[in-house]
Structures are given as C-alpha cells and as structure tokens.
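Example 429.
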Amino acid sequence: MANIVIIGTQWGDEGKGKVVDLLSETADYVVRFQGGNNAGHTMVVKGEQFISHLVPSGILQKKKCFIGNGLVVDPKVLADEIDYLSGKGIDISPEKLRISEKAHIIMPYHKSLDHVRELKKGDKKIGTTGRGIGPCYEDKSSRRGIRFFELLDADSFSERVKSVLEEKNFSLEHYFKAEPLDADEIIESYLELGKKLGPHISNVSLELNEGMRSGKQILFEGAQGTYLDIDHGTYPFVTSSNTVSGNACCGSGVGPNAINGVIGIVKAYTTRVGAGPFPTELHDEIGDAIQKKGVEFGATTGRKRRCGWMDMVMIRNSVRLNGLTGLAITKLDVLGGLDEIKICTGYTYKNQVIDYFPTDLSVLEQCIPVYESIKGWEEDISTIRAFDQLPKNAIAYLKRLEKLSETPIQIVSVGPGRDETILLSDPFR
Ligand code: GDP
Ligand code: IMO
Ligand code: MG
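Predicted structure in complex with 6-O-phosphoryl inosine monophosphate:
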C-alpha cells in the first residue's frame, strides 16, 4: 500500500491533471487538499478533453474523490461541475464525491472583493483569477469564514451571513465605492445549493483514515504550484494557500506518516499566468513559438501564459521544499523542432553567480539566468512509449534535468492524452 502526493513545481499548469488522471488507475481515493476553482486541470481521454476546477481528476478513472478541508469552495461552481461531468456520463453520485464539512465556502462578497481590490491596485495588480480565493482564505484566517456544514442549518446560516455581510458591505460601499450585496438573495441561493450538495458533505478525514486502515491507496492532487505558495512562492504574486506537499496532510486530515512518496510535476519549460517576476521568461519568437505549440492558455481564465526556459534553480528549490521522491516531466513534445534548448543552472546577481532562489523580489528581478545549451531534435515524439526510443538529444536533456535536480524521473509525458506517456517507474510501487 502506498499514498502519493502530486504537486506542481513551478507556477502551476504543469500538467497535474493529466498525471493525476493517469496514476489514478492504481489509486482507490483521489483527494484535493488546497486551493479552489482558481485551478484548471485538464485531462484528455480517447481524444475527449475534460477540465476540472474542483472535482479531483481521479473522477474519470471512477475513483472515490474527496474535496478536503483545506479548500475554499464556490458551491455554485461545484454544482455546475457536477452537472457538467454527469452530463458526460461520469458517475459523480454522493458516494463518489465527498466534500469536507470543514471546507470554507466562497461567498459572493469574496468574489466582489477580489475584483475591486485588483481594480484598485491598477498596474500593481496580482492578476488573480477573480474567483474570490484570497478573500475567502482571509476570512478563514481571521475566523469569520463560513464552512460547509453550516449550509445544512438554514437559521444559523442566515444569521452568519447577515453578520458577516454587514462589514463586507461597509467596505464594498464606502471604501471601494462598489455595489453592496443583498443578504436575502445570497441566503436563498446558497441554501438551495446546500440542498443539492448536502448528501456529499462528510467527515473527510475520518473516511480517509478508515480507508487507509482497510488498505486503500490515496493519491493527493495538488493545485497551483510551488512558486504560488503563500509562504514559499514569489510573494505577493502568489495564491493564498500552501501549495507544497506538506499541506496534503493539513488540508485533508491525515498524518505525515501517511505519505510514502511525492511526485513533482515539471513542465519541460516554464510558464506563468498573472503578474510577478519570471527570470527565464522569453520575450522573443522562441517564447511565442512555445506558447503556440504548447497551446499555453489558462484553463481557468483563458489568459495567455507567459513562457520561458527551464529554470533548475527553481526546480532544485522545489525538490527541497516538497521532499520530492520523483519527477514527472510533461510537454517534452512541445520542445521538438527547436535548434537549441536552454537550461538555467544559476543566476548572476551583481556579477556573482548564485544557485539559490532569492526571497526578495527586488533581488530576483535583477537576477540574470546562467544558461547551458542542449541541441534540439526534429522528430515528433508523441507516439514514442519507451524512453530509449526518444531522440538522443531528448534523452540528453532529460538526463541533465535528472542530474541537476538529483531526483529520478519516473514519468515523461509526450502529449496531452492519457496514453501519450512513458512510464519509467510506477510511483505506487
Ligand atoms: P494543470 O493545472 O497542472 O493540471 O495543467 P493544465 O491542465 O492547466 O495545463 C496543462 C495543459 O497541457 C493542458 O492543456 C494539458 O492537456 C496539456 N498537456 C499535459 N501534458 C502534456 C504533454 O505532455 N504534451 C502536450 N502537448 N500537452 C500536454
Ligand atoms: P492550476 O491548479 C496557474 C495564479 C493566478 C495569479 C495568482 C493568484 O491550474 O495549476 P488567485 O486567484 O489564486 O488569488 O490568483 O495565482 N494562479 C494560477 N496560475 N495555475 C493555477 O492553478 C493557478 N491558480 C492561481 O494567475 O497569478
Ligand atoms: Mg491549470
């Protein structure tokens, strides 16, 4: 029996959805532990594309899925996602999808505040997804959040909404000069959603621990990426949750001794959506070509993703922060056709080479990447299923990443489809 955590090692969109879908075949339970519908995880099975924002990506493999206490959940988005997936013939009954009673609820005022705060920041904005994630986590930390179990008691829910809304409306109207919200409208629509989602609400921690005792294997599905982590990322250009592997435990209610392995998803190059520093960003035709070939548009907001070379300073730091036991390299096919491929191995800061990721963004912004080059390959690799059949330059690239990260590559993804994968060693074994 093994329980595995999957996390993003960069700025999100590394291909977590694809790898979770693939590895779910061996898992019994699949669990999201942080974030919310800022995430957009894409799975492609037999040519059909599915995007999930809240429901764990194990749902296509018919596995029991859990939304842990560490998430902030917009109940309308979740209800719509359940309809979308069941419309595609996927079983998403209350038995299949469990929602932690402790997960915090994204309310309409969280979305309004997310929106007006970004507007007020002007060109200093973070470029959030606008889904109310930050304001909801703020309420969680300041102990006035509303949790899922509260949706089940109409009277106390109404009272809670009215008391919280008083302060939110004051801030919306008088500080942000925005429209206040109507308590009765919110209460009515949310209680209606509560009726629909009620049968899914459960004590997730209890169910996971009981499952482990009876030999179930768990896959923990991270969202976002290490550099969007509220503590370890490029603060303040981050999301509002801990995205690193350690949060798999806090965000689902299992102990650290439950975790047997941590797989870091590494895109074969780097991308970022939203604002913030990005040392290896390409502002030239190579960056444009990668963006086009990789179809680098956000799965949640549709925004163009910024593209750049692989940054091994970042990956080495990710290995340490997450305790990675293996890597999955995704989108290797996208690099095909380039004459040369660059790998950032360090930064030059004030004429000195450094090999660590600076905390101070004003330092990071002055860092100039130190690159080494690997020759590219021409072949289309998307039909290759064995490592040794890859072009020799692609193998050289992967070996170099393995050496620099000091972490074994367990999976290489050569296309978006579930089967477009080279499995070197099974993380569950
Ligand atoms: P996530 O947020 O980490 O789950 O990643 P996204 O789903 O937001 O973005 C990854 C995108 O790359 C999706 O469109 C996937 O279908 C696609 N993708 C995943 N792996 C590969 C791959 O190996 N090759 C190619 N070409 N596309 C991939
Ligand atoms: P997945 O799980 C990429 C980014 C936003 C913004 C910052 C803060 O698909 O990899 P937020 O709405 O969370 O307050 O926005 O974080 N961001 C993501 N970028 N992939 C994601 O998720 C992201 N979730 C949030 O673009 O820069
Ligand atoms: Mg995504």
